[in-house]
Amino acid sequence: MQQQISVITLGVADLARSKRFYVGGFGWKPVFENPEIAFYQMNGLVLGTWLASALDADSRRESRPSGAFSLAHNVASQEGVQPLIDRLAQFGGRVLRPADAPPHGGFRGYVADPDDHAWEIAWNPAWPIAEDGRVTFAI
Predict the structure, then answer these.
(1) Most buried of the four, 17, 43, 124, 128, by CB within 10 Å?
(2) Residue 139 lies inside a defined structural domain of this protein
(3) Arithmetic mean of pLDDT over the chain
């Protein structure tokens, strides 16, 4: 079976507030939206932000605390990490960890979106970013 993810959908409480973070903070543009959902075309997959109540109804389950997970957005340089974290905070994000150098190398920090989904903003010199934004896992 092909190893891939097609869509990641995050449940959100307020779509307008969520769009402020993703559109204003990251500068992303929805490729489709309606009053319940916004889809963003990414580099090989689609990110959806969907009203949590509608996502619950569609999946036939109740929302649960998200637990320990994070999404990541890699940037092209170490100098780009903290400014993006700061920008995301200006558009409704909450800084979880200011940028610093972890023991395994690179540079990273964390910010939560308005619905508390954690985003790692990272630079890693060993993980090249292609022109289309695809990141390659390299050792």
Answers:
(1) 124
(2) no
(3) 94
